[in-house]
Every structure is written in C-alpha cells, then in structure tokens.
Amino acid sequence: MSGLTSEYENMTVLSDLESNLRLFGQIFKNDAILRIRTVELKNIGTKCSLLYMDGMVNTEMLNDSVVRPLVTVIAPKQENICDFICDKVLFAADLKKQTVIADCIRAILYGDTLLLIDNSLYALTINTKGFKTRGITEPADERVLQGPREGFGETAMFNLSMIRRKLLTPDLCIEMLRVGRRTETMVFICYLGSLADKNQVAELKKRINKIDIDGILDANYIAENIRDHKTSLLKTTGTTERPDIVAARMLEGRIAVVVDGTPTVLTLPYLFSENFQSDEDYYVSYLVAAVGRILRYICFFAAISVPAIFVALITFHKQLLPTSFALSVAQLRGGVPLSSFMECITLILVFEILKETGLRTPQSLGHALSIVGGLVVGQAAVEARIISAPMLIAVALSGISGLMVPRLKGVVFYMRLILTFAAAIFGLYGYIALMSIFLIRVLSLGSFGVDYTVSLDNPKLERFKDTVLRVPWPMMKTRPAFNKNKIRIKEDCDET
Amino acid sequence: MRLKAAFLSVLISLSLCGCGVYKEADMQYTVAALGFEGGSTVSVYAEIITVNPESTKQETGNLLASSQGETVKEAISSLKHSLSKPLFFSHCGLICLGESLKENRIKEILDYCYENDEINHSVYFISSDNTEELLSLSSQSEMATGYDIMGVIRQAAKAECVDYNNRYYEIEAVRQGVQDIFSLPIFKVQDGSPLLNGIRIYTNCEKTVDLTNEETYSYYLLRDLTKKGSIITDGKTVKITSKDDDFEVSLDEKLHISLETEIGFKGNEEFISTVQKQSEELIKKSIYIYKTDIFGFGARIHKRNEKLWNKIGENYSEFYLNSDISFKLTGRN
C-alpha cells in the first residue's frame, strides 16, 4: 500500500462491523488521534461504531447530537436500522450515506464522524467538524484605509461562504476538484455562470486535472502549475486574500480558484494593468484613485530604471548631465573604491537584504532595523567613502518606488539588476535594448487565451477607464476588454 | 528557445559594442573652456574644473593647463599627456580664439572641433586679445571663468537687441562653405573680470575688423540680425520694439543696393541719427577700407534674386567695391 486514499476507491463498506473496524484500524494503524467509540442500540442490541479524529470534531456536538441519541434510543425491530438512525435518531444537519471506503476516509480526515453500523452496507458520515481556525482578520499585504477589512482564512468552506455572502445570486457556480496525490486538497473553481467564459473554465479544469504532485499546501502550487508562461518573470494569475476583490473580479467575468488550507485565492485571467491596481482604488474618490494609479506606473518605471539610467549617465553619457550635477557626482565619488556599477549592485542587494530582514523580524524590531540599516549604516558608509551619496539616493529612490507596486516585486528586483548590468556594459543603448525586449515580452504574454496587455494595447479611451485611470463608476459601463459580455450589471438592471 | 535567446543576446551585444566607453566621473578632468593662440606654433589653453573629494559640499577649483604644438592636434595631444587624468570635453562651454590666430589656424581649430565628437555643438566661440589672461581669471561663479563668460554672453543676448551669432553650429557653416562671414564677441580683462568689448568680424576665417559695442548694433542692423531688446547709445538706453526691412537691389552700370529700415523704439530720439550715421560710416569703411562685404549683402542678393546673382556672383567682389549702397533708417517712437 502506498498510502493514497484513491487506492480505496473500489472498496466498499462491508456489512460486518468487526471487518470494517479491522479495515479502518489497518488504514489508520499509525494514527494516534483516531478515536473509536462503540455503542449498542437498546432493544435490538445492534452495535454501532463512531470513528473520528480527536481535535478535529466538535466534541460537544458529537456528544449531544450523535452519541446521546444513539445511546438512549430504543430501536424498533424489523426496520432498516441505517435509515432509522439517519431519519429519526441523529440530530446532525449534514448527514450522508456512504458506501465507498475512500469517501469514508476523506470524511474522517476532514473532521467528520463516521458511523459504522453492524449488518448494514452503508456507513454514515456526520458533519461534526470542529477544528480551530484563525479568525477573520485584515490581510497584512492588502490593507486599506477605506472599504471592507475582512480577509480570507485557511478553511476553504469559510472562504467560499465569504464569497457567497458577497454574491447573493444562484448564478455563482462552485465546482470542486481534488488535487495532490497525498494531500487530496480540495480546490474550488468559482465563477458567475452568465459572465465567465466557458472555454476558460474548461481550460482551467483541464490544467488543474493535469497537475500531478504529492501535495498542494498553498494556492501558489496551483498558480505555478497552471500559468501560461511557466518561466516568465511576470505572473499571469492574480492572487488576493480579500473576498471583496474576488467578488469584484468575478463580476468582471473572471474565475476564482479557492484552495483549502490557504487564505490566498487565485483569479484569472490576469492582466498586466491589474499589477497597478490597488484594492482601495474602488472605495475612494476616483480622483484620488487616478493619481495613485498614475503614480504606480511612474514608480514601476522608476524602480526598474533609475539605477540603470544613473549608472549609464555617470559612466557613459556625462555630457547629458548638467555640468554642476556632473561635477557634484565627480566630487562625491572621489575616493570611493568601488566602480559605479559595483556600487550600484551592492546597494541594490543591501536594500533587498534590509527589506527581507524587515519583513521577517518582529514588528517591534522592524523600526530599529530600518533606522540602523537605512540611516546609520547608510550615512556612515557615505562618510567613510565606501559608497557615494548620489548612488545611495538613486538606489533608495528606486527601492522606495518599487514598494509602490508590491505585485511586481519580483519583476522589479530582476529587471533592476538586469537593466543595470546592461547599462554598465553598453550605456543607455543597452538599457534601451533590454527595455525593448522586456516590452516585447510583456506584449507577447497571455493569460488563459487573453492578451496580457489587452487593456492597454489599444489607444481607445474606453480601454483606459480602469487601467491607467479609474473613472467614476457611472462611466464604467462596460466590463474589461477581454469579456465578451460587455455590459455591466448596472445596465442589465436598467433593462430588467 | 534557448538557442534563439542566446543568438539574440549575441546579436544585441555585437550591435551595441562600441556605443560608448565606461569611464567613471571622478577619473576625468572636466574642461570648461579651451583657448587658442599662435602663429607658426599653436598654443592651447584648457581651463579645467577641479573638485575637492575631501569636502562634503560642492567645492570646485580652476586649473589652467597649457601646451604647444606645431598643429592644433599636436598641441592638444601634448596637453593630454601632461595631465594625470584624461580630459573630458563634453562640458566645454567656450572656445576662445586669440587675436594672433591666422586663417589656416582657425580652420584647423574648426576641423578639430568637427572631428572631436566630445565638443558640444552649442559651444560658444569668442575672441580675445589675450586668451591666457582671460582664462586665468578667477571665477565669479566658483565654477569656471569659461562659464562666467557664457553667462555674460547669454545675458547680453537676452537683454540687448543684437543676437550674438557665435555658436559652434553657426560658425561651422563657414567651414562648410555655406556662408563667408561670422562675428565673435571680443572679451578683454578689466579689473579682474571678463568684459564684453564689441565684436570681431571674420571673413572666410580671416580676421577683418573689430567693432565697438556701439557700432555692433549698426552692423547687426545692416546684417538683418537684430531683434527686440535694448541698446545703449550715448549713455542712454533705447528699447527697440519692432523692425521692418525693405531690401532692394538693381544692376545697371553698377550695383545698387537700397536698404530702408523702419524701427519702432522707446527712448532717446537722437538714437536714429546716431545709428544712421554709424551705419553709413560702416558701409563706407567696408567698401573703401576693408574692401569686403562684411554685411553679407551677397548672400541676401543670392537668396532674393537668383537671376541677378547668376550674373554677378562670379565677380561679386568687384561689383561690391563699385556698388552704390544707400541706407535709410526711420524711427517710430
């Protein structure tokens, strides 16, 4: 036996309780938290066994709704005992008759209680889930000043309920798949039936079903397996921990993938312009949102370009700098042992180290770290002529700008390094060549059959309504360019 | 895919090779101004801006390096070899031509500027009687004397109604044979400062005549190079507000050039008669003393009346020396 639940797909529950218990005892022989409680029904003497995982069930509910009724009931003779227990004894709302052993195993492992009845070919799974979960909190990476503050948790069912609460429509479709040979993680595909592209849904299912992996512990396991361009720096699947964002994206015709065990939900197709959207954009004034959007585009450009352009200017194209600035750079670089390129690369790496350290250390230490790392060490290094002040300013500007577009942090880091490298070898020509290649690459990407830059590649005002800018809601009458069902819900309501 | 990417990388690398040279900013000397003097041997002066790496504030100093050679290239090459860091000419804002330079030397300097990619095409050209003394002045702006002189020219060009036609790309037109005349502002040293002291006119790179500040306006008026601005005549400031020109030319036994100009101005009315007088004097001098068309009338005839130019073009100098030139200036206060 390889330990996979799927191996028991063809085995069914036997009528003999002892045999069933032997089988489950064998299956869970190394599991210390499996609990078995056998009771004998009064009047008829039929034995029943309850199997559950300690800590995963709600003990109070188990006692009151399952054990107590079974112990106290006076069962009638000559009646189908399984149906009798099901219909007249147990108080549980969610009760299922099972015949396949694999389904029974899955139920026990997920916090349900399995009831095996002697002389019955059915087992009952009772929903007694009661494992502890994290409460609803605001996602740390997606904080907003205005708007809903709730975030997903690690339990898929709770997450689905949060999405369902936002979309009170029977049009919401939720399909379940199990992925992972050993974890058999539940993966839910959610979409609005009348808005989502059926081909995209089919393609998504196809790609998820192709995943052959031991376990799925986070949504990123799925994301990396289903993305269109597996080695691309730019991600083509969106992620969020906020139910309002998932609901908003589904209203645009997108599909959400909820994975059990993680608060991260995938949304797709994902467009380049989404990297520059903030969750808060839709909850604040469109004027404020538009400024934020434009700044994010500028900051992305600055984050990847400033060190490269600066290195190119001070080493290859000094004639392009104002004389006083060129002299200032020359003066402040005097005595610095590293070349401008090495200085730049070192500072970029130091900045990344500081950033990562700041993320991993407790918040109380984070402030001290940024003061010591950023201010004290930075100033001391400049005064000791280990680095020059202009380069420190350039890299710091780039670093701070990069924080404006957290969804592109990987791209920013790599592009910053690559462009700096090209600029140090070929000057601005190298920078422009690599930027051109990057742009060509961005334009050639796609996400589930949709062009990655579909919302930006056509100079129609219509396309910019929710990309570079965020126009007022009354003006957003159409859904994103990739959605064939163009008219937004507002207009549908008007028609009806 | 990998093969394509590798091929693309190699292709880009090859196509970008030689696009520039990596040089650290602090490993070069920034040249602020270049000066040339000399006859049989040429002397070159380079005003270099030095920086103080020990100081945290911007602290610059000047260094005047000089060298000599048989040719301009030799002199500059010798200058480069006498310095500890390579020279960086891209921020050179001024080229000063000494009085002693002959026609062939000026052409050589222009050739050098043309061949040297680093020389900025908007560099200012000036003329001076003593280049070394001028460039040795201590800078007012704590940067470079060359930049101070640029500032003086810019201020004058902005405030006054004469347009100092002295940028490198304009002078290059003479080297290319498109025009014959260019004029450079003359700078001299007075009380330890550079002083704009009229203009020097060059015809085919040969020094022809020096004009005072007061004559400059008349000269530019005849060359049709004035603009709105102010001038100072007889110690009084006159503001020019408009200008209309009527240039006519005819040929019978001799060449007749008639130039009627009406200018709108605010200020001293005597200014009109002063300028009229100065202009007539200049016209006479150009025919009888300098014996050359320093006003570029030939180019204007060529532009306006090509048929006539075809008749007189080959012997224009002779026609000019026998010409009848009338200039009438009227003013509207």
Enumerate how many helices of chain A there are, as a single number: 16
Structural class of chain B: alpha/beta
**Helix content estimate of chain B:** 25-40%
Low-confidence stretches of chain B: none
In terms of quaternary structure, the protein is heterodimer
Radius of gyration of chain B: 24 Å
- Give the low-pLDDT segments of chain A: 489-496
- Count of strand segments of chain A: 12
Main pleated-sheet profile of chain A: 5 strands, antiparallel
> N- to C-terminal separation of chain B?
78 Å
How would you describe the overall organization of this protein?
The complex is a heterodimer of chains A (496) and B (333). Chain A has helices at residues 17-27, 59-72, 81-89, 101-109, 156-166, 198-210, 219-226, 243-251, 286-315, 323-333, 340-360, 363-383, 389-402, 409-426, 428-444, 489-495, and strands at residues 34-40, 47-53, 95-98, 113-117, 123-126, 172-179, 185-192, 238-240, 255-259, 265-268, 446-447, 450-451. Chain A is an alpha+beta fold and 496 residues long. Chain A folds into three domains: 5-126, no CATH class; 140-270, no CATH class; 286-447, no CATH class. Chain A has a five-stranded antiparallel beta sheet with strand order 1-2-4-5-3, with helices on both faces. In chain A, helix 11 (340-360) runs antiparallel to helix 12, helix 11 (340-360) packs antiparallel against helix 14 (409-426) and helix 14 (409-426) packs antiparallel against helix 15 (428-444). The radius of gyration of chain A is 30 Å and the shape is elongated. With 333 residues, chain B is α/β, with parallel strands linked by helices. In chain B, 35% of the residues lie in helices and 33% in strands. In chain B, strand 1 (29-38) and strand 2 form a beta hairpin. Chain A binds chain B through residues 314-319, 323-324, 326-336, 339-341, 385, 424-427, 429-430, 433, 437, and chain B through 8, 12-13, 16-17, 19-26, 28, 30, 32, 49, 51-55, 58-60, 88, 90-91, 93, 118, 120, 143, 147.
